[in-house]
Specification:
The complex is a heterodimer of chains A (about 120) and B (about 900). Chain A is built from 4 helices and 3 strands, in the order αβααββα. With about 120 residues, chain A is an alpha+beta fold. Chain A has one domain: Arc Repressor Mutant, subunit A (Orthogonal Bundle), CATH 1.10.10.10. Chain A starts with 13 loop residues before the first helix and ends with a helix. The N terminus of chain A is likely disordered. Chain B has 4 domains: about 60 residues; about 180 residues, no CATH class; about 325 residues, no CATH class; about 200 residues, no CATH class. In chain B, strands 4, 5, 6, 7, 8, 9, 10 and 11 form an 8-stranded mixed beta sheet that branches. A 6-stranded mixed barrel of chain B has the order 16-17-22-19-21-20. About 0% of the residues of chain B have low confidence. Classes of the chains: A alpha+beta (about 120), B alpha+beta (about 900). The interface between A and B is medium-sized, with 22 and 31 residues.
């Protein structure tokens, strides 16, 4: 039985997290911990990745064929699973970024109008 | 979405666990780099990540199909829990199997007869041409009608005439002569029905004209059985009635006709004939885009046209033509009885459902604690209902599977015992085949049944009062008020439904007994009958037929054990032809003739052999031949109907006025009156009937007769005539110069055949009624037994307080009988409303037959009393000490 999951407070919107993961991986393969750190540092710690959501998201993206993964050795010389962006993932990132820009512009317009 | 998502879940979970471990290690590294001590670094890392198990569960669930997964788990659980109570499971499955089995059986007949389309291409456009009139419509055609219909090219693409095998044909040659069914057809027959030709060709138009030559087309069955499937048979000649016939083609196995035929012959109509007797039927294929209604409008004009040409002899003033779909015409009047049977089996299924629902309620009560525990552990109400529904569906589907087997085997068995005279079922029901329709019907019914009997118990069981139930010690709490009310309602409805079924069955049994008690008007026992086909040249003249009857009767009387022998063109009970007649010197008013009556041509010893009593006048003698004055004998019904006061023996009749040249003859003196026989079946009043000596028929009539009907031989013996079949057949073959006989049956067997429809209905409804009664008895037994068991403690206390055993027994019986009587009352009411649907099945019994309506409820009450008696006696055996100690 699927239990209804209450929305997690402070969570990044699901679609947004997917986009951020894809964007992070443009710079090259990385493992989950690095991805979370990069997102947090790049956003100047404004965004906090709920780590319980990160891995389900990674697995979902892999199932959709946007990422591939393989085990390797990390910078700390530890075993880690590295994710790599696929061609389809790159295309999806382009589309997702476009959708995001359009939406933020639209919201910006509305907010701008209401400010005047 | 790819299927990867749902595969290798365990391996992927392990991978994820490793991944999380790796993540925590990296986080710990980061924390250590920030200068935290190792222990604290690890603690912070775990704190930050949260519970790894929650993440793993989220991914796990993401990879699952919850509905199927849970269903699968519930199914395994259901199987385990059903296996724990094998007695309950077995009874429930058997009850469901009976309920679904009878439905599958009846549905498989309905499927074959009513639902399956005819096997010809584009069957919807095939129509049967009918004659309409104030009394209803009937098929039947003569050449003038055929010509008129054939000209209606605006509505018909093709028109073809055919008969039903008529007299039968003698296939001579090879080791054994054989009588086969040869269907006469017009040339367009095969193309109209889309018959597949697997060798050779069908008839040409030239071959289907007078003097078109002797040609025939073989059926697949005869080709295989008689000629070993030899393809060279096409183009060779075979002997029919002593004449060589050219085989021009063979038709494929898939071509089915009703009734079946062995070979086809061209009609070779003389299209100028003005003969008005009906001796074949006509079907037509509508032109594309023409509706039945348009065709009927056009046919009205055709009927007027026919009347203008031939006068009202050809078609009565209020008569006309119409078309009905061929399938409808073949099904005839069997639709309604089949639907009534379907209604009856619906009742059986409802009883089965109520029965199983009752069992499930009892079971659910016993499982209250289990369900309450599950509920306390967090199972939602929906989950419990689903769990219980899956259990009931498991039961109903297993029962349905068993029912499918039972029902299908049962219907084949039943049809082989009593075919019931239903069309389209093939030889002994061989056309009833398992197909997708039947499988889907049974599957659908099983699911519906499972939900029907499972839902109420499931909903009621999913409302446990947690703390009350869990605090109970032992399982005596079970039967709550709500449960017992529901269970009582179920038992009452079972009783009511069973009573309706049993009343219906009793009415049909009474009908059957009444039929058996009808005096057939002759002595049926120790009489053997058989058909001899008189096709061939020497039977075109009356003298040839007289000769063969004379020789045959002589030979037969010489067979030891034979008392008397006769022949005729029809048999009592089986019916024969009808013919119009005039009474000489009596004014006809505005009708074209005095009236119509059954018409038999018989040998002079016919009445003696069958022991049909002579009431007045004299019998035929051997001297009533073609050189003697014409005579006729009529039956009592005819005398009563047409001579209510006068004396028929003073009158002469003219048979077949205006029926065409074949029936042109001089008038006949009525010389005798004989007793009535029931020629339309035992359930119909005797028809007015006239008899003439075969030896006095005009040659043209004999020729027509030989073509459309076989000669029936009737032999009375001293003992069981079955032992005489071989000597009689041999004697007739010798007397006739090698003609075979077919349809060898005793008169008793013919009687069984004529009542087979009633027998079929009676058998079925009796089976349904008995199973309904049995299930209802189990139902009331179950409820009372359960109630006694649940009230052991109460009974013990009553006993300890001084109640007598007989008091307790009477209390239980009283409660059980209260349920029964309520059911009986409702059932009688229901039966009053429903038995009128049986009206057309009944004979000699009213739909509200007081005998049935009194005896049947009594029977049901007695059966219920027996079922209640057992738990009532058990109630008196409760040991007060044991009962109290249960506390």
């Amino acid at each position: 039985m699927v239990l209804k999951r209450p929305p997690e407070a402070g969570d990044i919107l699901q679609g947004t997290l997917d986009m951020l993961i894809l964007r992070t991986l443009v710079m090259g393969p990385a493992h989950g911990h690095t991805i979370a750190q990069v997102i947090e540092h790049t956003s100047e710690n404004a965004l906090e990745v709920e780590q319980g959501s990160l891995y389900p998201a990674l697995h979902r993206l892999e199932d959709r064929g946007w990422l591939t993964s393989e085990w390797g050795l990390s910078e700390n010389n530890r075993r880690a699973k590295f994710y790599r962006l696929t061609a389809r993932g790159r295309k999806e990132l382009g589309a997702a970024t476009g959708r995001w820009r359009k939406m933020t512009r639209a919201i910006g317009l509305i907010l701008g109008e209401s400010n005047e | 979405m790819s299927l990867h998502r749902f595969t290798h879940r365990t391996r992927k979970d392990k991978d994820l666990a490793d991944e999380i471990e790796s993540h925590l290690a990296h986080e710990q590294d980061t924390n250590t780099a920030r200068g935290l001590p190792e222990e604290e670094a690890r603690r912070q890392a775990r704190l930050r990540f949260g519970n790894p198990r929650v993440t793993r569960e989220r991914v796990w669930r993401y990879r699952s199909l919850p509905w199927i997964e849970d269903g699968w788990r519930d199914l395994r659980f259901a199987l385990r829990s059903l296996a724990k109570t094998p007695g309950f499971t077995l009874i429930a499955i058997i009850v469901i199997a009976v309920g679904i089995g009878v439905n599958t059986a009846v549905f498989s007949v309905i499927n074959t007869v009513l639902l399956k389309p005819l096997t010809y291409p584009d069957p919807q456009s095939l129509m049967q041409l009918m004659n309409t009139g104030p009394q209803g419509s009937f098929p039947g055609a003569n050449i003038p009608k055929f010509n008129i219909w054939h000209q209606q090219t605006a509505i018909f693409e093709k028109v073809a005439g055919y008969d039903f095998g008529g007299a039968g044909i003698n296939l001579i040659g090879g080791d054994h002569p054989q009588q086969v069914q040869g269907i006469h057809v017009t040339a367009d027959y095969f193309s109209m029905f889309g018959a597949p030709v697997i060798a050779g060709r069908t008839f040409t138009a030239e071959e289907d004209s007078p003097h078109g030559g002797r040609v025939l087309v073989l059926s697949y069955a005869l080709w295989k059985s008689r000629f070993g499937g030899n393809p060279k048979i096409v183009g060779s000649t075979i002997q029919l009635d002593g004449e060589p016939y050219l085989v021009v083609g063979v038709i494929g196995r898939s071509f089915v006709t009703e009734p079946p035929g062995d070979l086809w012959l061209p009609f070779q109509f003389d299209l100028t004939s003005q003969d008005m007797a009906h001796y074949f039927t006509v079907a037509a294929r509508l032109k594309p885009g023409i509706t039945q209604q348009q065709a009927n409008t056009q046919l009205k004009l055709a009927a007027d046209q026919l009347r203008r040409i031939y006068g009202s002899n050809a078609i009565p003033p209020q008569g006309g033509f119409s078309v009905v779909p061929l399938q409808e015409s073949i099904i005839g009047d069997t639709r309604f009885p089949l639907l009534v049977l379907l209604g009856a089996v619906g009742f059986v299924l409802l009883i089965a459902c109520a029965n199983v629902a009752n069992l499930l309620l009892a079971r659910a009560s016993a499982r209250n604690r289990e369900l309450a525990t599950r509920s306390a552990l967090g199972a939602g109400r929906g989950q419990i209902i689903r769990q219980l529904l899956i259990e009931s569906l498991t039961l109903s589907l297993s029962g349905g599977l068993l029912g499918l087997v039972l029902g299908f085997a049962g219907v084949r068995l039943l049809l082989s015992i009593s075919p019931g005279g239903i069309p389209r079922l093939g030889e002994d029901g061989s056309a009833v085949a398992l197909d997708l329709n039947i499988l889907l019907f049974t599957l659908g019914l099983s699911v519906l049944t499972g939900i029907l009997f499972g839902l109420a118990p499931a909903i009621s069981a999913s409302r446990p009062n947690l703390s009350a139930t869990l605090n109970e010690n032992g399982n005596r709490s079970g039967v709550g008020f709500r449960h017992s009310k529901l269970r009582s309602a179920l038992v009452i409805s079972e009783m009511a439904l069973a009573l309706i079924l049993v009343i219906g069955a009793s009415l049909l049994i009474r009908t059957f007994l009444k039929l058996q008690a009808v005096d057939p008007g002759f002595d049926m026992h120790n009489v053997l009958t058989m058909a001899m086909s008189l096709s061939g040249n020497r039977f075109q003249k009356t003298a040839g037929v007289t000769q063969i009857i004379h020789d045959g009767a002589d030979r037969l009387k010489a067979v030891p054990g034979v008392i008397d022998a006769a022949a005729g063109n029809g048999l009592p009970l089986q019916g024969g032809f009808g013919m119009v007649f005039d009474i000489l010197g009596r004014p006809k008013g505005n009708t074209p003739f005095t009236g119509g009556a059954g018409f038999y041509s018989i040998s002079w010893s016919y009445f003696n052999t069958l022991k049909i009593p002579l009431l007045r006048g004299r019998n035929f003698t051997e001297q009533d031949n073609d050189s003697a004055p014409g005579v006729a004998i009529i039956n009592e019904a005819m005398a009563r109907h047409y001579w209510p006061k006068g004396n028929p023996l003073n009158d002469r009749i003219q048979i077949g006025p205006g029926a065409g040249p074949a029936f042109a003859e001089s008038s006949r003196q009525i010389v005798g009156i004989v007793g009535d026989t029931h020629d339309g079946g035992l359930n119909r009043d005797p028809f007015p009937t006239m008899y003439i000596p075969l030896a006095q028929m005009p040659d043209a009539e004999t020729a027509l007769n030989s073509r459309v009907s076989p000669l029936w031989w009737i032999v009375r013996s001293t003992a069981d005539p079955h032992s005489l079949v071989t000597p009689i057949s041999v004697a007739l073959r010798e007397a006739s110069g090698g003609l075979p006989v077919a349809h060898i049956r005793t008169m008793d067997e013919i009687e069984v055949r004529t009542t087979s429809r009633q027998r079929f209905n009676m058998l079925l409804l009796t089976i349904f009624g008995a199973s309904g009664l049995f299930m209802a008895a189990i139902g009331v037994y179950g409820v009372m037994a359960y109630s006694v068991q649940q009230r052991t403690q109460e009974l013990g206390i009553r006993m300890a307080l001084g109640a007598q055993a007989s008091n307790l027994r009477n209390m239980v019986i009283g409660q059980g009988m209260a349920l029964t009587l309520m059911g009986v009352a409702i059932g009688i009411g229901g039966a009053f409303g429903l038995t009128r649907f049986l009206a057309s099945f009944l004979f000699g019994v009213k739909v509200w037959d007081p005998f049935v309506f009194i005896v049947t409820p009594l029977l049901l009450t007695v059966v219920a009393l027996i079922a209640i008696w057992i738990p009532a006696i058990r109630a008196t055996r409760v040991d007060p000490m044991t009962a109290l100690r249960l506390e």
